[in-house]
Amino acid sequence: xxxxxxxxxxxxxxxxxxxxxxxxxxxxxxxxxxxxxxxxxxxxxxxxxxxxxxxxxxxxxxxxxxxxxxxxxxxxxxxxxxxxxxxxxxxxxxxxxxxxxxxxxxxxxxxxxxxxxxxxxxxxxxxxxxxxxxxxxxxxxxxxxxxxxxxxxxxxxxxxxxxxxxxxxxxxxxxxxxxxxxxxxxxxxxxxxxxxxxxxxxxxxxxxxxxxxxxxxxxxxxxxxxxxxxxxxxxxxxxxxxxxxxxxxxxxxxxxxxxxxxxxxxxxxxxxxxxxxxxxxxxxxxxxxxxxxxxxxxxxxxxxxxxxxxxxxxxxxxxx
Amino acid sequence: xxxxxxxxxxxxxxxxxxxxxxxxxxxxxxxxxxxxxxxxxxxxxxxxxxxxxxxxxxxxxxxxxxxxxxxxxxxxxxxxxxxxxxxxxxxxxxxxxxxxxxxxxxxxxxxxxxxxxxxxxxxxxxxxxxxxxxxxxxxxxxxxxxxxxxxxxxxxxxxxxxxxxxxxxxxxxxxxxxxxxxxxxxxxxxxxxxxxxxxxxxxxxxxxxxxxxxxxxxxxxxxxxxxxxxxxxxxxxxxxxxxxxxxxxxxxxxxxxxxxxxxxxxxxxxxxxxxxxxxxxxxxxxxxxxxxxxxxxxxxxxxxxxxxxxxxxxxxxxxxxxxxxxxxxxxxxxxxxxxxxxxxxxxxxxxxxxxxxxxxxxxxxxxxxxxxxxxxxxxxxxxxxxxxxxxxxxxxxxxxxxxxxxxxxxxxxxxxxxxxxxxxxxxxxxxxxxxxxxxxxxxxxxxxxxxxxxxxxxxxxxxxxxxxxxxxxxxxxxxxxxxxxxxxxxxxxxxxxxxxxxxxxxxxxxxxxxxxxxxxxxxxxxxxxxxxxxxxxxxxxxxxxxxxxxxxxxxxxxxxxxxxxxxxxxxxxxxxxxxxxxxxxxxxxxxxxxxxxxxxxxxxxxxxxxxxxxxxxxxxxxxxxxxxxxxxxxxxxxxxxxxxxxxxxxxxxxxxxxxxxxxxxxxxxxxxxxxxxxxxxxxxxxxxxxxxxxxxxxxxxxxxxxxxxxxxxxxxxxxxxxxxxxxxxxxxxxxxxxxxxxxxxxxxxxxxxxxxxxxxxxxxxxxxxxxxxxxxxxxxxxxxxxxxxxxxxxxxxxxxxx
Lengths: 320, 802
Known about the structure:
The structure holds 2 protein chains of 2 kinds. Chain A has a single domain, classed as 3-Layer(aba) Sandwich (Rossmann fold). Chain A is built from 11 helices and 10 strands. Chain A has helices spanning 34-49, 84-94, 106-112, 114-123, 168-173, 189-201, 223-227, 245-250, 262-270, 289-292, 301-315; strands at residues 7-10, 56-60, 75-78, 99-105, 127-133, 180-185, 205-211, 232-236, 254-256, 275-282. In chain A, strands 3-2-4-5-7-6-10-8-9 form a 9-stranded mixed beta sheet, sandwiched between helices. In chain A, strand 8 (232-236), helix 8 and strand 9 (254-256) form a beta-alpha-beta unit. Among the domains of chain B are: 88-187, no CATH class; 196-245 and 272-361, no CATH class; 714-801, Alpha-Beta Plaits (2-Layer Sandwich). Chain B has 28 helices and 23 strands. The two termini of chain B are 59 Å apart. At the A-B interface, strand 1, helix 1 and helix 8 of A face strand 1, helix 3 and helix 17 of B. Strand 1 of chain A pairs antiparallel with strand 1 (17-19) of chain B.
């Protein structure tokens, strides 16, 4: 109307953040390490979503993957072993305006951090959690992790791992209030990017397990998956994974999946060969803790000082 | 003069615009929750106001709109940097003026300096901020583009992040080379139509004058030659001084010019031109020079606009000039051909009157501009305009109007003027609002180039309104008060070919429609759709404010009908109802404004005019609609007949099939009872479909017919294998290859690897990288250097990756 089209105002778009704005130190991961791919995809996600670096936080625990915040041009918190999730929750509850991402490893999250992991799922804070699952402790030079496959020889199990690995997808899907679970492999950047984007847009605890190569300590453990595209199964759905035509020529195993079906998600999580890739489960109706428990009053320095003064006054002696 | 360019030449690099309402600073239009049943007293008062224009006391409502605007317009008014078509950029650098909207100019600029990737996006945003700064600066109606550009750059610069300064300056430098120093920014004002007309006319006058001026020059030369020849053959040509001058300075002492003169003087001289012919030739030469200069002289004097009354004298003077020029031209042509007979031609030329000049002769006359506003449109003024428009001289009347186009108290003559001009069928008629730059510029261009007179009526918005000029004009067009139209006389036989109303929104409908988001008191947001009628336009006219009563929010009743619905009803259906238009108060509340009956009558007249224009322009043509309706009825009857016939045939076929199947069943049962071999064909069995038979009969070892042939693209891929390449889209950014050779391998903007320069390293590096690549996406191709050491071994290693 009035001679103006629907798009009629100048879009100056504010500050534009380029890929460079999300890059920081030169990564010190080994050449060929899958962490590089994850870093690259996450930086692209931040650029495409134009997340202001000063409003974005990456929190990590300990391990190779936990060096992640060092390489992001955003705020970061390289915390204690297994403690990434509670720190991220603390950040989010205090500063709900920030976009919070967590990078943790299979050992960091599913061994020493297990208790936090379980409860973080239940609390369903709005954040994206990436579990870099290379199935081994890499930074501490090759020890068995909770996801190391049975029979793999490591420095702690020279005769081969004795136990079946923990199915972390199944475990996550078993926790109350689970709201988003996805599984990807880092060597298909297109798929990983799409799933991370979906996780970012999900309101709640978006748990993304990323199968990641460790070229140094377990260089050939994923060779069957790498060399045979038929060993991967792409889970497609309208809002989630939409492989490009080029990708479909290589990865021909596809299955439509309804991510709102928890039972189906659990069945899929049990499948090992082919490995399911995509969004297994999504439920947007689960209450988000940082919303339902959002602070209702503003605690300024004055309010805090007055509270302290009141406490001190209880013990003060009135000399007058 | 090029037509105005409102479309950018750029593709995806346009300065991206965002939808209205997306801005966070956009004020929200609110609506009070319905208070339930309306007060019957208020409804009664509204009905009385509608009928009589008066309100009974004690009802709590009062006539008059105070700072109200049509609700559909409200969201637009808060944006400081709307991408309206104004200002326009007028660039006359290369002689031929180029007119573009600022929007198109910036989009082209982005396409020119932008590039892809992050850098391109940064540049786009920088330029968008400069555009925003220009649009939000209070510029004069006519300003220099370059000055405005640098002022905007200086305004934007302090807000650029320090780490982006260098990129910003580089972008500005690059863009500045596209900013013409002589280009002007013409703002949305009453002066703009004349500026555009002059720009269009400048090129046109030069273009149309060229052949005339060339002919005049040719004739002048020929006439002068005649005079010169006569001069050379006269006794004056052999005087000593003349002979000395002819010989030149170097030979001035070489001859005895006195003796030579004496000698030549004794020789017989030509008779020479008769004095009266010489005088005629001189008169024609001087006449051609004088009138050509007056008609096609300096463009600025030719393009000087006249007032309506001054135009009458100018037209008389211009006609006399043209007639005089015609006389001189005709006489000069005859003189040059030595066919001028004074006794014959003098009488003919003296008896010439303007009426005897043909349309072709008047095409030699440059356009004469007349500018007028509404004040000059009294009865006499309108009469003068119509007189000018019916004459042969190409008078271009430019009317820039303000005020209500159809004041109920005093019906305007503007609409009548354009209607009569169209009816006369001689003048090119353009009517539009100042907001419609497309119609304005294209229409003016057509009017200027039209052989005869033309009328351009531009509505510049109602007088006294607080709306920005652009919106004041836009509501006039969209409310059908000043619909855009272009009438091209003589183009095609049907009127639909001559008259175009395409410049209007929803040209096929009675009214334009739009919607606006409204927030209720409970926080819910609703999209309210509404027509934009002449009454909405009237609500923006200060002079008509007293004809409206704004109703307290929350008052609703079945008796209140949206204006467009009310106008569509018959008199009987309207009984007991009053119309309303949706307005927004200055503090953002939605109200319903009830108009008095005189305004509704004016709206009906406007709608009637609009429908007449539509029909003349071929929209809703009654004759065509009747014809279509007849054809449709005939086609439907034929279709029904065909369906009935097909049904009958189908029923007959079904009967036959049922009977046939029943026979087959009976036959099979009989065969079974008679112990015939199982599956033996029975006489009633229907043959299998042909395709099935073919498949069944195909020999098992025959080559599969459906086997796809080798795909050509595979052959193409095979050919491409000679060159090294990376499946970039699958790259995991693991640094293996780039760590190996950074000249050979590089990352793109998405941080995914590609072959930067295959010759920047040995074949060994390509093969090694292919082996190291964890996702095996590097294909080394064939070696570029056939003498590389150990090539045989490398080729063997490369085989798995080819």
